[in-house]
Recover the amino acids of this structure.
């Protein structure tokens, strides 16, 4: 009610002013005792004792010409005061140091500036915390398999344990170390593996990409470590761990028999990772860097399923390459999206950490319902393994 | 405007001797305070301080305590006052300092007070003559405006005020002898606003069936509002004038009143409430309206205003309406 009353008066005063403006412009010529320049200025600069000020207020309320001058002066003064505050020595010495300090603790400063500062700090902390958590997600996905590793290692105890011991805490370092050390000697084989990989693209790359899931993460490192050790021990015979091709095929067959494909993705991730890491180890021990050849053999023999399994082992066995791509930022394009390989996950180039990530597990109802509507997304999901994709403004993590 | 007149009105108080002592001491402190006292002595300054004190403090508080007298004297701008007093005494160095230091201020004030660049230049030039004074006063000193600077406000602000007043004076002189372009329009506007009640009556947006009653109600409301505004406290009326008549924003009106925008806003809101009560009281007491009639009429008048404010404000519509009415 009060607000409407105020609105009423606002409108009435507006009209009243419009009607009477010009009348009083003439009327004030009859007024006596106009303010002189000194009075106007002293009033405008708010430099008058209160009693004198009151006297001038009553004249200004009725005298249009004095009021207009006083208003102009006051506005110029208030604008100039901000500029000359520091430059006028007399003023700053006497009048404005105190008020300036007082202004820091004044009501508006305390009311607005302090909460604003608090809000900025809060946002910064939240941002940092959020970023930490996102990094933490990747770490968590990598960790179960790698921590499990020492317990399950069936390989040669002398080699395996030492390899995994270094592998777990120094994963990244050792990977880099490997690529750095091994590369000069091993450029040729690595390239070979890569080309073999590329050959696989048409039929089995999805599988190969699958192999790059975080679950497989430690394995390549273990393999490289082994190799690294070997390369240190026997630098001349780098492809020393060359296994029998038949061995590998058998393994792949066994894997495909053991496990329904697609892998039971609904099961607990840890379970799956356990399985996978076990298989990886098996394959890693068996798989040679030459498995590219092996893969193409399998490809010619087996169906797509076997090819996938095979390429999985291929992906795993070519651990050096995986480690290297991690560093060299491998890029792929699917359905018009560009993906960079980061931590064995294909991450959409347009993805930023500010987007909320929806996790989809392959085979789940949610995954099916989303993917069925969007063939483009399906293509991405099928062609890439663990993938973070931005689709229609939403970010999905598919694994 | 003239000092002697002010002085005459000030009765000599019992503590005049004490005040005189305070003034001399204040003048001493002022000269110490000034970065350049321009070799003035206390006697040169104390006359200015005396008239300023009487004009701004003792006129309203003849028995102001020594504390407030000292506070007032110590707030006087030492350098500005010394410069002006030295100028008035014919100090050439001070004069050139004044022209150099404040020439830009005078030019910018002249530009904002003038309609074109030539007029601004003329105005700026005439200021210096006005300041110094072409004729000598009886006591031999220049009879310029320099004599009227008190040092209470800044010298720059005072110069701007002098320029502004001079511009108004020149405008008035011109308006008196030459018909300026604005003059016919102002006449027409004032004529039509004298007929404001007819304007309101002829407002075509009003429902014809109710128009007679509405006319009368509207006229009563307008009368009551005029009276209520006239009877408002000076400070409130000044705010209303600044905001509604001069079209200043709240921040600007606050700057004139020496208060923050938020304070001006709160004050305006209170003014609305007070004014409405006052208007309602006038309507009920003088026209025998009941409270509900008053509320209804005010709401009705405003609801028409909300729709019609624009055409009413616009001059052509006003003109058309008034001509039809007459």
């Amino acid at each position: 009610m009060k607000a409407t009353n105020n609105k009423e008066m606002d409108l009435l005063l507006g009209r009243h002013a419009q009607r009477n403006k010009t009348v009083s412009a003439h009327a004030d010529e009859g007024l006596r005792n106009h303010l002189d320049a000194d009075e106007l200025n002293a009033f405008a600069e708010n430099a008058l004792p209160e009693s004198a000020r009151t006297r001038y207020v009553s004249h200004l309320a009725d005298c249009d010409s004095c009021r207009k001058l006083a208003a102009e002066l006051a506005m110029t003064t208030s604008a100039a005061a901000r500029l000359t505050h520091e430059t006028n020595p007399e003023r700053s010495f006497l009048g404005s140091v105190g008020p300036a300090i007082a202004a820091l603790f004044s009501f508006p400063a305390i009311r607005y500036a302090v909460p604003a500062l608090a809000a900025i700090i809060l946002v910064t902390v939240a941002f940092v915390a959020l970023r930490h958590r996102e990094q933490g997600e990747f770490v968590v996905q990598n960790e179960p398999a790698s921590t499990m590793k020492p317990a399950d290692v069936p390989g040669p105890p002398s080699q395996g344990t030492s390899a995994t011991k270094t592998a777990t805490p120094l994963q990244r370092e050792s990977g880099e170390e490997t690529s750095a050390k091994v590369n000069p000697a091993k450029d040729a084989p690595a390239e070979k593996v890569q080309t073999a990989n590329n050959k696989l693209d048409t039929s089995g790359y999805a599988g190969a990409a699958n192999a790059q899931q975080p679950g497989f993460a430690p394995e390549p490192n273990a393999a490289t470590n082994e190799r690294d050790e070997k390369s240190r021990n026997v630098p001349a015979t780098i492809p020393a761990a060359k296994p029998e091709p038949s061995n590998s095929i058998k393994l792949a067959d066994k894997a495909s028999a053991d496990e329904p494909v697609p892998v039971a993705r609904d099961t607990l991730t840890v379970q799956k990772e356990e399985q996978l890491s076990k298989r990886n180890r098996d394959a890693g021990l068996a798989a040679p860097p030459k498995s590219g050849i092996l893969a193409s053999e399998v490809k010619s023999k087996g169906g797509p399923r076997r090819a996938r399994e095979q390429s999985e082992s291929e992906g795993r066995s070519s651990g050096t390459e995986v480690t290297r791509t991690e560093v060299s930022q491998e890029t792929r394009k699917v359905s018009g999206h560009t993906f960079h390989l980061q931590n064995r996950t294909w991450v959409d180039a347009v993805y930023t950490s500010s987007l909320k990530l929806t996790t989809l597990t392959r085979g789940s109802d949610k995954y099916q319902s989303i993917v069925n509507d969007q063939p483009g997304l399906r293509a991405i999901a099928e062609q890439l393994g663990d993938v973070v994709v931005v689709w229609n403004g939403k970010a999905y993590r598919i694994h | 405007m003239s000092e002697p007149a002010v002085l005459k009105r000030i009765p000599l108080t019992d503590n005049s001797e004490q005040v005189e002592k305070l003034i001399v001491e204040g003048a001493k402190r002022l000269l110490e305070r000034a970065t350049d006292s321009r070799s003035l002595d206390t006697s040169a300054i104390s006359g200015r301080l005396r008239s300023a004190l009487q004009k701004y403090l003792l006129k309203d508080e003849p028995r102001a305590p020594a504390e407030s007298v000292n506070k007032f004297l110590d707030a006087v701008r030492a350098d500005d006052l010394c410069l002006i007093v030295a100028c008035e005494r014919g100090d050439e160095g001070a004069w050139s300092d004044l022209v150099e230091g404040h020439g830009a201020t005078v030019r910018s004030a002249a530009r904002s007070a003038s309609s074109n660049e030539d007029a601004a230049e003329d105005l700026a030039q005439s200021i210096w003559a006005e300041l110094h004074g072409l004729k000598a006063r009886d006591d031999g000193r220049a009879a310029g405006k320099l004599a009227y600077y008190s040092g209470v406000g800044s010298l720059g602000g005072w110069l701007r005020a002098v320029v502004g007043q001079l511009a108004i004076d020149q405008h008035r002189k011109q308006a008196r002898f030459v018909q300026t372009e604005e003059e016919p329009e102002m006449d027409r506007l004032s004529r039509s606003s004298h007929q404001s009640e007819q304007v309101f009556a002829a407002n075509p947006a009003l429902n014809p069936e109710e128009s007679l009653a509405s006319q009368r109600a509207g006229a009563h409301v307008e009368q009551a509002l005029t009276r209520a505004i006239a009877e408002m406290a000076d400070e409130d009326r000044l705010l209303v004038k600044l905001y509604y008549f001069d079209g200043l924003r709240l921040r600007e009106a606050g700057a004139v009143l020496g208060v923050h925008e938020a304070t001006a806003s709160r004050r305006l809101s209170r003014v609305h409430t007070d004014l409405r009560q006052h208007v309602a009281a006038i309507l009920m007491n003088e026209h025998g309206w009941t409270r509900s009639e008053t509320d209804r009429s005010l709401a009705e008048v405003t609801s028409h205003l909300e729709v019609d404010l624009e055409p009413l404000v616009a001059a052509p519509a006003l003109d058309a309406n008034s001509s039809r009415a007459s």
